[in-house]
């Protein structure tokens, strides 16, 4: 099994982070970034393995299409919805996503 929690794609510009974590990718750059990593992950994945990738609302559809291409849409397992109920009060309301997604594919 492989689990990836990559930088999320945001369809709006976010303020610069206080540490080195790029969350301001253009869509084309983010898709290439993810494609390169998912192709390597597919090679490393066991023949009967599963890959799980966390993503936010903005990138969910784009990532699913990309993973359909790399892992074959017939190998799609599920998109799990994770309801985040434990956000610190120090986060702004805009950055407190209440739902995130985990896309799962098998390798057959």
Q: What global shape is seen? A: globular
According to CATH, the homologous superfamily is: Vaccinia Virus protein VP39
Indicate the structural class: alpha+beta
The description of the largest β-sheet is:
4 strands, mixed
Domain DNA methylase N-4/N-6: 1-108
InterPro entries: DNA_methylase_N4/N6, SAM-dependent_MTases_sf
Organism: Haemophilus influenzae R3021
Protein name: Putative type III restriction/modification system modification methylase
SSE order and pairing:
Layout: E1 2-4, H1 27-44, E2 50-55, H2 57-71, E3 76-83, E4 99-106
Parallel strand pairs: 1-2
Antiparallel strand pairs: 2-4, 3-4
GO molecular function: DNA binding; N-methyltransferase activity
Protein name: Putative type III restriction/modification system modification methylase
Keywords: Methyltransferase, Transferase
